[in-house]
């Protein structure tokens, strides 16, 4: 491994949270690097097209204006962008390497890997702003080619500028499906339907009430309502109250089946049941996590200054809880300010206003979270359906292991290989915890997180 | 397998503490021999070293015995007799337990990269042969003809035809199910809290489901891995087993290409391709035990030592270049017990008749055999093979324990 | 289906995918290139079922292919002239 590159602050993740933290810190004169496995900054909501692309009218809607401004400001800030690198672990640097002046906090070593090999960075403070990922929800047929997460499919549309198949069906509980449907429509894709599992009343009623209660989120909400109207006007079949039960097809998706019995022919499917934080780096570093909320998963446990339980390690954005891009921006800004303080530097910007804005945005986020709550609509999981898609472990095998006495996630893993594959348990863990809870094994701490946070070529760790 | 079917103040012929490989295997042998058996496991079965190890079946004298001088090497050589028994036991396990344990015994190579290491191999092989283990020295080319995936870095190797690997995740549950079928009661999440010796036996207190229980037994076996010294203390005994923390690396799955166990005589390395296709790379590289309140925290998972990743993987990829192209998907840490002289400890404690211990060392390889021999002793048949590992060699420590 | 005007995309290049030439644009992700070339079988699962990109953000591992000899996540690798891609490797 190459020699350590040193800096005041390393930020993992260049989404709205990481970029805003970087802006505050660079503005305060700190040396900052943002490390991200995506080639370009922006995070999931602003997944940029490849460098050579010149897309006109890219993401023009109102929700994107502020974010695009952040992106432009970031390009001009003094912060260093280290794209195309996955962070594999964050560990305390050896005793001797810690600096006296780090305010009691430790220095950290970040092991990373990218196309050109591994590199270790050393930073006095680390902020994890790793964002979130789609909650993995298994159902019959979910491993067929052509079945994707709604976020993943959206990234193809907005970043790669492709629609990889069709007709496109979107199903699940999350309103992001509306945003994606509009983007698909604009792209000229054939849409087979947008089918929400929850009833219209649950969806629209909450939306309406939320409009009155959460003024600052109204922009986004209105965007959602408008999107729905436009979709319907364009002849898109937007339906409510019909949960997806499975996908059909031999070697790829050919149709979707719903609880109503209806079978909808389609060639590409995006399912959206909400998002779970990416907190494994924080967990691996030994910091506390907490159950993240309705969709499941773990969020970094932080105080009001976004400090984790490990001194010097901070977390912001959706790593501390899924609340949307605006909350991520504000959290990143506040965390940046707190870290600047710890470095003895003066942060720029109005932190008090950021905190009061954040409170409002988080109230709205909670409303959205309630609307999208997937729990009543998880498709039934027949015994032969894979719960762990890396290792092909079926729900039945897991249930048998539990019946045979495996009462924890780790015990089931040991017996079945569930969680031992390349995704390292990220995708099957929520399902497994659900199956355990159904058998009375509640409050399980899950798998824990292990090195490396992403698979890494062995040769890269050696050179 | 929840609450055991034992009345309060009940009595069993034999009580086993620890639901790892050794405890479960011993419970099976004891049950088969007709004894009434209760096994107490503080957590889930296989949650200790038995579920975390690398699954190597290594029968050659281990490198760790060769790096600390003649005396230790000679002592270690005597364990080779046990290794010969273990080879037979492993060959018969799948039939005896009537299931696939992914046991692959297609041979192992301990390699040398320098002339000096090759000489070490020669001395080792001579010792082994004098104890009846058939290892054969081969040069680099012959090693490569046996194992074509080995690189030119290999100068010589010793080949042991019975070495290989098995699946640690399958073995303990298989023993446990066989034990249950043989009538043994297995109590999970049942933690021993007190041991009271009395005439002709012991009263054992344990806690399960928030309640205290007591059971009386004639004979007991402590097979609690790194926790064994703790349990021995409950009976006012010293047991010189020490926790050590190790780390293991595992690659993504690859098509089968490495049917052997590969070890190194001059560097810490053990490597094999598990049945699912993942390559496991370890060989005694330490992780770090957590400490709490001035002691080692045995409840916590040890911390990875990232600085040990590169050197471990580098030796592996030097010998097997293909490995470099595979992705590492996980590194895990685990803890296991090592005795004061590195040999296992298995047998009855001379100063406390009726009290057996078993554990320490490479007790995946030797576990099934140690468990069988100890169970046979508990049934009343002395086992000469256990003499070399008997706790009697540490009895001086207990001569002060009134 | 590629969206928008040809000229909005990067320079035209070609790759070799499972032995055949595939035209694409520099910088497109390998996952996008393969899907647009009609590849739906990126890897074969343990029990023999075909798999293709699912998360498209690097977390699931369903898109592993061999790119210039190395096993990499196709959704994270940008296409460069002359790359050699082998699926199901
Ligand atoms: C696929 C996807 C699509 C989404 N699309 C939308 C949308 O259109 N509209 C919307 O309102 N919300 C969307 N969301 C939710 C969105 O993530 C948040 O609203 C917002 O982007 C969160 O900002 P963030 O800064 O917390 O994290 P993100 O924007 O997710 O940024 C986190 C960054 O961290 C990087 N990262 C994570 N782990 C590592 C690691 N180990 N090593 C290196 N880099 C790492 C990621 O590559 C990512 O760029 C989407 C979420 C996902 C998962
Ligand atoms: C990373 C690693 C790699 C290894 N590789 C190899 C290898 O390749 N080959 C090899 O031969 N050996 C290997 N070993 C060593 C081997 O795993 C152990 O020697 C063996 O598993 C020990 O088994 P055991 O049954 O004695 O102990 P364990 O498996 O540790 O079982 C002890 C059990 O006792 C229970 N217990 C503890 N306290 C109490 C209590 N108060 N009441 C009731 N129950 C209690 C525990 O919960 C545990 O389940 C390795 C070890 C590690 C950690
Ligand atoms: S599609 Fe999930 S890692 Fe590439």
Automatic annotation (TrEMBL), chain A:
GO terms for molecular function: oxidoreductase activity. Pfam families: Fer2_BFD, Pyr_redox_2. Residues 7-322 form the FAD/NAD(P)-binding domain. CDD domains: GlpA-like_Fer2_BFD-like (cd19946). Keywords: Oxidoreductase. Residues 388-437 form the BFD-like [2Fe-2S]-binding domain. InterPro entries: BFD-like_2Fe2S-bd_dom (IPR007419), BFD-like_2Fe2S-bd_dom_sf (IPR041854), FAD/NAD-bd_sf (IPR036188), FAD/NAD-binding_dom (IPR023753), Metab_Enz_Cyan_OpOx_G3PDH (IPR051691), Opine_Oxase_asu/HCN_bsu (IPR017224). The keyword Oxidoreductase applies. This is Opine oxidase subunit A. It comes from Pacificimonas flava. The lineage of its organism: Bacteria, Pseudomonadati, Pseudomonadota, Alphaproteobacteria, Sphingomonadales.
Automatic annotation (TrEMBL), chain B:
GO terms for cellular component: cytoplasm. The keyword Cytoplasm does not apply. GO terms for molecular function: oxidoreductase activity. Residues 13-376 form the FAD dependent oxidoreductase domain. The keyword Calcium does not apply. Keywords: Oxidoreductase. SUPFAM superfamilies: FAD/NAD(P)-binding domain. This is FAD-dependent oxidoreductase.
Automatic annotation (TrEMBL), chain C:
SUPFAM superfamilies: 2Fe-2S ferredoxin-like. Residues 11-89 form the 2Fe-2S ferredoxin-type domain. It comes from the Bacteria. GO terms for molecular function: iron-sulfur cluster binding; oxidoreductase activity. Keywords: Oxidoreductase. Pfam families: Fer2_4. This is 2Fe-2S ferredoxin-type domain-containing protein.
């Amino acid at each position: 491994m190459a020699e350590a590159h040193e800096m005041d602050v390393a930020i993992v993740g260049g989404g709205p949270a990481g970029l805003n933290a970087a802006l505050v810190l660079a503005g305060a004169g700190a040396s900052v690097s943002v490390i991200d496995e995506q080639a370009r900054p922006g995070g999931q909501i602003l997944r940029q097209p490849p460098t050579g692309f010149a897309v006109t009218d890219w993401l023009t809607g109102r929700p994107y204006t502020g974010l695009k401004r952040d992106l432009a400001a970031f390009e001009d800030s003094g912060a260093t962008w280290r794209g195309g690198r996955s962070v594999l672990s964050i560990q305390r640097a050896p005793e001797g390497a810690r600096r006296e002046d780090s305010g009691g906090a430790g220095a950290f070593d970040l092991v990373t890997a990218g196309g050109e090999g591994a590199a270790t960075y050393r930073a006095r403070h680390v902020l994890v702003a790793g964002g979130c990922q789609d909650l993995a929800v298994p159902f019959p047929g979910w491993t067929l080619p052509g079945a994707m997460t709604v976020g993943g499919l959206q990234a193809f549309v907005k970043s790669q500028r492709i629609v990889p198949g069709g007709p496109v069906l979107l199903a699940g509980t999350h309103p992001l499906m509306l945003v994606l449907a509009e983007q698909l429509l604009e792209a000229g894709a054939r849409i087979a339907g947008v089918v929400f599992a929850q009833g219209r009343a649950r969806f629209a009623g909450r939306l309406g009430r939320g409009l009155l209660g959460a003024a600052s989120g109204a922009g986004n909400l209105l965007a959602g309502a408008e999107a729905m109207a436009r979709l319907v006007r364009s002849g898109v079949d937007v339906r409510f109250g019909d949960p997806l039960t499975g996908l059909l097809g031999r070697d790829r998706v050919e149709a979707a089946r719903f609880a109503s019995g209806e079978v909808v022919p389609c060639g590409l499917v995006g399912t959206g049941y909400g998002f779970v934080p990416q907190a494994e780096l924080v967990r691996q570093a030994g910091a506390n996590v907490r159950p993240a909320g309705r969709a499941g998963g773990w969020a970094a446990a932080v105080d009001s200054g976004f400090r984790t339980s490990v001194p010097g390690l901070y977390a912001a954005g959706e790593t501390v809880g899924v609340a949307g891009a605006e909350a991520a921006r504000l959290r990143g800004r506040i965390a940046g300010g707190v870290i600047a303080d710890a470095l003895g530097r003066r942060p720029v910007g109005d932190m008090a206003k950021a905190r009061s804005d954040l409170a409002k945005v988080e109230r709205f986020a909670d409303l959205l979270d309630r609307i999208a709550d997937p729990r009543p609509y998880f498709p039934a999981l027949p015994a032969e359906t894979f719960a762990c898609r890396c290792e092909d472990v079926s729900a039945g095998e897991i249930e048998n292991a539990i019946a045979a006495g495996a009462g924890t996630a780790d015990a089931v893993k040991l017996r079945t290989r569930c969680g031992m594959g390349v995704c390292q348990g990220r995708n099957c863990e929520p399902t497994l915890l659900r199956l355990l809870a159904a058998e009375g094994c509640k409050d399980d701490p899950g798998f824990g997180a292990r090195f490396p946070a992403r698979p890494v070529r062995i040769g890269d760790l050696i050179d | 397998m929840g609450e055991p079917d034992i009345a309060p103040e009940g009595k069993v012929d034999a009580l086993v503490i620890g639901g790892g490989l050794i405890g479960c295997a011993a419970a099976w042998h004891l049950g088969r021999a007709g004894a009434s058996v209760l096994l107490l496991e503080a957590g889930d079965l296989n949650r200790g070293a038995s579920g975390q190890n690398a699954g190597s079946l290594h029968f050659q004298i281990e490198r760790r015995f060769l790096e600390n001088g003649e005396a230790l090497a000679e002592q270690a050589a005597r364990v080779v007799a046990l290794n010969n028994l273990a080879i037979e036991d492993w060959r018969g396990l799948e039939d005896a337990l009537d299931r696939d344990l992914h046991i692959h015994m297609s041979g192992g190579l301990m390699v040398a990269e320098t002339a000096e290491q090759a000489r070490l191999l020669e001395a080792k092989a001579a010792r082994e042969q004098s104890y009846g283990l058939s290892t054969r020295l081969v040069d680099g080319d012959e090693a490569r003809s046996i194992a074509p995936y080995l690189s030119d870095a290999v100068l010589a190797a010793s080949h042991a035809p019975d070495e290989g690997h098995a699946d640690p995740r399958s073995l303990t549950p298989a023993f446990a199910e066989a034990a249950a079928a043989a009538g043994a009661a297995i109590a999970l999440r049942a933690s021993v809290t007190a041991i009271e010796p009395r005439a002709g036996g012991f009263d054992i207190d344990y806690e399960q489901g928030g309640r205290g229980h007591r059971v009386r037994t004639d004979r007991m076996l402590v097979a609690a891995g790194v926790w064994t010294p703790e349990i021995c203390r409950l009976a006012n005994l010293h047991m010189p087993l020490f926790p050590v923390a190790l780390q293991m690396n595992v690659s993504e799955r690859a098509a089968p290409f490495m049917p052997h166990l590969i070890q190194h005589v001059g560097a810490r390395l053990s490597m094999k391709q598990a049945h699912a296709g993942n390559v496991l790379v370890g060989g005694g590289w330490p992780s770090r035990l957590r400490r709490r309140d001035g002691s080692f925290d045995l409840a916590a998972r040890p911390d990875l030592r990232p600085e040990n990743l590169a050197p471990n993987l580098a030796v592996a990829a030097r010998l097997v270049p293909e490995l470099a192209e595979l992705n590492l998907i996980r590194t895990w840490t685990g803890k296991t017990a090592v005795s004061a002289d590195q040999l296992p400890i298995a047998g009855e404690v001379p100063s406390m008749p009726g009290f057996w211990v078993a554990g320490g060392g490479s007790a995946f390889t030797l576990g099934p055999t140690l468990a069988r021999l100890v169970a046979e002793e508990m049934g009343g048949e002395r086992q000469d093979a256990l003499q070399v590992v008997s706790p009697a060699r540490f009895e001086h420590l207990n001569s002060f324990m009134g | 289906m590629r969206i928008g005007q040809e000229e909005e995309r990067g320079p035209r290049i070609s790759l070799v995918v499972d032995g055949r030439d595939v035209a694409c644009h520099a910088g497109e992700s390998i996952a996008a290139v393969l899907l647009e070339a009609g590849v739906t079988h990126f890897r074969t699962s343990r029990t023999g079922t075909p798999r293709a990109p699912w998360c498209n953000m690097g977390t699931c591992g369903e898109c592993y292919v061999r790119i210039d000899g190395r096993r990499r996540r196709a959704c994270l690798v940008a296409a460069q002239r002359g790359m050699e891609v082998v699926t199901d490797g």
